[in-house]
Amino acid sequence: QVQVVESGGGLVQAGGSLRLSCTASGFTFDDYNMGWLRQAPGKEREAVSCINWSGVITYYADSVKGRFTISRDNAKNTLSLQMNSLKPEDTAMYYCAALRRSCAYFLEYARGDFGGQGTQVTVSS
């Protein structure tokens, strides 16, 4: 059974940090590019970051560039997102997504092949 499970969300003050994790199972993890999406209430879904299958190439939305770092461990089937210098506008539900399409596609269309249930990130001012 294909499954991705996000964790690590929470409440943090502006300027703080959080590390999100995504654990994958039921599919060949390193066959897929992986990404993080977020969606805030009343707003469109936004692609935050993406990493290619090998972990060598990373992509970031302009809104998080320089503050967020995506990484993956193919031996452990895990994806991570280190979020620093958090801002209230980063408040959203964050979702892990697996995709066979390119990361460029993911960043433009904010769409993966499948994903998890999400983890809530709330940044207070």
Describe what this molecule looks like in 3D.
With 125 residues, the protein is mainly β. It has 1 helix and 11 strands. The strands form 2 sheets. Strands 2, 4, 5, 6, 9, 10 and 11 form a 7-stranded mixed β-sheet that branches. A 4-stranded antiparallel β-sheet has the order 1-3-8-7, with no helix packed on it. Strand 5 and strand 6 form a beta hairpin. The longest helix has 7 residues. The protein is globular. The model has no long low-confidence stretch (mean pLDDT 97).
Portion in helices: under 10%
Instruction: Count every helix, treating DSSP H or I runs of 4 or more residues as helices.
Output: 1
Low-confidence stretches: none
Order of helices and strands: EEEEEEEEEHEE
| Intertermini distance | 40 Å
Mean pLDDT: 97
* Biggest β-sheet strands, sense, barrel: 7 strands, mixed
Count the beta strands.
11
Strand content: over 45%
User: Helix- and strand-based class?
Assistant: mainly beta
What characteristic shape results from the CA principal axes?
A: globular
Give descriptors for this structure.
125 residues, mainly beta, 1 helix, 11 strands, 6% helix, 49% strand, globular
Summarize it.
The chain is mostly beta strands. It has 1 helix and 11 strands.
List the helices and strands and how they pair.
Layout: E1 3-7, E2 10-13, E3 18-25, E4 33-39, E5 46-51, E6 58-60, E7 68-73, E8 78-83, E9 92-99, H1 103-109, E10 114-115, E11 119-124
Parallel strand pairs: 2-11
Antiparallel strand pairs: 1-3, 3-8, 4-5, 4-9, 5-6, 7-8, 9-10, 9-11
